[in-house]
Amino acid sequence: SQTIHQWPATLVQPVGSPLSLECTVEGTSNPNLYWYRQAAGRGLQLLFYSVGIGQISSEVPQNLSASRPQDRQFILSSKKLLLSDSGFYLCAWSVLTGGGYTFGSGTRLTVV
Amino acid sequence: SQKIEQNSEALNIQEGKTATLTCNYTNYSPAYLQWYRQDPGRGPVFLLLIRENEKEKRKERLKVTFDTTLKQSLFHITASQPADSATYLCALPNYGGSQGNLIFGKGTKLSVKP
Q1: What angle do CA B73, B59, B110 make, to 5 degrees?
Q2: Residues linked to residue A109 through DSSP beta bridges, in sequence order
Q3: How far apart are CA A100 and CA B100, in angstroms?
Q4: Closest by alpha carbon to A107, among A83, A91, A84, A85?
Q5: Taking every pair of C-alpha atoms in chain B, what is the biggest distance, in angstroms?
Q6: Alpha-carbon Rg of chain B, whole angstroms?
Q7: How many C-beta atoms surround the C-beta of residue B7 within 10 A?
Q8: Beta-strand pair A107-111/A10-13
Q9: Mind listing the pLDDT tens digit for each residue in B36-64?
Q10: For the segment A41-82, what is each residue's pLDDT rounded down to a tens digit?
Q11: Which of A21, A42, A44, A73 has the fewest CB atoms within 10 Å around its CB?
C-alpha cells in the first residue's frame, strides 16, 4: 500500500536559521509531489510541485526552495528563515492529474 | 484570477441532522472539484471527486453536487454524527486542470453536537 512520511512533526527554529523538511513516498512510482503551507486562519497555499526527478515548479516567490533528488523524495529548504515562514507545512502526492491527493501528517514550524 | 469561496467559516448542527456546506468559485470552469476533510493538526484526507459532467455523487452518508451554471458545489452529510466534526475543504484544479495542481478553499469548520 502507498504511504507518505513527513518529518519532523514539530520544529521551533530561530530567525535566520536554515530549514530542511523531508517527505518520502512508498508504494508508488513517479508520483506528482507537492509542498503546501497552511498559516493560521488561512487556506492551503501551494508552494512547490514536482512531476519528476529534478523538476520543480514554484508557485509563490519566497525564501524557500524545493528539491527532488530521488523519485519518491521531496525536500523543502530555506537558507535563512523569516518569522513569516511559520506555519503548518504539508507534503502531498498524487498519481494522476485530477486524482485525489494523499497528504502527509504535516510539520508545524514555529520561527522565533 | 481563480477564486474559491467557502462561505461559512463555521457550521454548528445537531446530531442526526443533515449538514450542507457550500463551495463557490469564480473566473473559470474547472473540469472537476474535490472535497477533503481535515482534523486539527492533521493533513487533509481526500473524500470525493466530482467531474463537470456529473451532477451528483454519493459515498455512504456523503453527497456532493456540482452546478457548473451556478459555479457552485454543495457537500451534504446526512444523519450527521459528532465524529463528523472537522474542517471540510473544497479544491479545484489550477489553471483549468492542465497542470494537475489544486487550489483549496479556506474550509468550513463543522461541529456536530450530540
Answers
A1: 60
A2: A11, A87
A3: 10
A4: A91
A5: 44
A6: 14
A7: 11
A8: parallel
A9: 999 999 999 999 999 999 989 999 999 99
A10: 778 999 999 999 999 988 876 799 999 999 999 999 999 999
A11: A42
